[in-house]
Amino acid sequence: MKGLETGIEQIDRGLRGLKDGKLYCICSPAEEERTNLIAQTVMGLATRDNSVLLFSLEKDRRTMFQMLFDIYWQMCDADAQFDDIERRHLMLYKMGKLPIWIEDISELSYASIQATIQRICLLNKHAIEVIVVDNLTLMKTDFAVSSLEYAIMANMYLLKMTAKKQKIPVLFFCKDDNIIANDTYLDKFVSFKMLKEPIKNLKFC
User: Fold this and answer.
1) Whole-model pTM?
2) Which residue, among 80, 193, 34, 198, has the nearest Cα to 42 in the 3D structure?
3) Cα separation of 154 and 124, whole Å?
């Protein structure tokens, strides 16, 4: 099984396709670059007919939607004038049909992730094909832990269990690969500090 592709060469080369039941991590230090990378990844997946559930902890739903729209505009017609109102409305209509759910839950935890999945899948149990979490370090735990390291390890385990239970890939982002001290539950990991290409040069295939 090849797995789902984002259309971003550096990510697809590093992760080798997002496969069901697997947990993946992408590390990118700078917040704005990381958020832009997340938006490109989500849009790359959605425009390939993959339904994406994005948990956005660093940006609210409105801001993330605008970032996704800017990327979609560039993908579809980079030469079009952004102030073309008719064109803009058409693009908004088309983007509205893409299979993307954006959740900006401030106190995101395993319990809230499960509740969101249950709500979305109420009418169609196959509605979600990939889950993206934008910053693992901001996730809360549903129980007390003694340190951030233990919290991250616990949430990685729970995200892996979510991937297995839902039989879909789960992809999370973080800002520092040093915090992933225990990668027992990770299937693939890519750090943009290890890649030669800068993030600004990301391109869709």
Assistant:
1) 0.87
2) 34
3) 29
Q: What is the pLDDT of residues 62-102, one digit of tens each?
A: 999 999 998 888 887 655 565 677 888 888 888 888 999 99
Closest by CA to 41, choosing from 69, 6, 66, 72, is 6
**Residues 68, 95: contact at Cβ < 8 Å?**
yes
Q: What are phi and psi of 189, to 5 degrees?
A: -140, 135
Q: Which segments of 16-84 does DSSP mark as H helices, in order?
A: 31-46, 61-77
Place of tokens 């954006």: 102
> How far apart are the C-alpha atoms of 45 and 33, rounded to whole Å?
18
Give the H or E element holding residue 102.
strand 100-103
Start-to-end CA distance of the chain, whole Å, equals 20
Q: What is the pLDDT of residues 24-51, one digit of tens each?
A: 999 887 777 888 889 999 999 999 999 9
Q: What is the DSSP string of the chain?
A: ---B--SBHHHHHHH-SB-TT-EEEEE-SSHHHHHHHHHHHHHHHHTTT--EEEE-SSS-HHHHHHHHHHHHHHHHHTTS-TT-HHHHHHHHHHHHTS-EEEE--TT--HHHHHHHHHHHTTS-TT--SEEEES-GGG---SS--SSHHHHHHHHHHHHHHHHHHHTS-EEEEES-GGG----TT-SEEEETTS-SS-GGG--B-
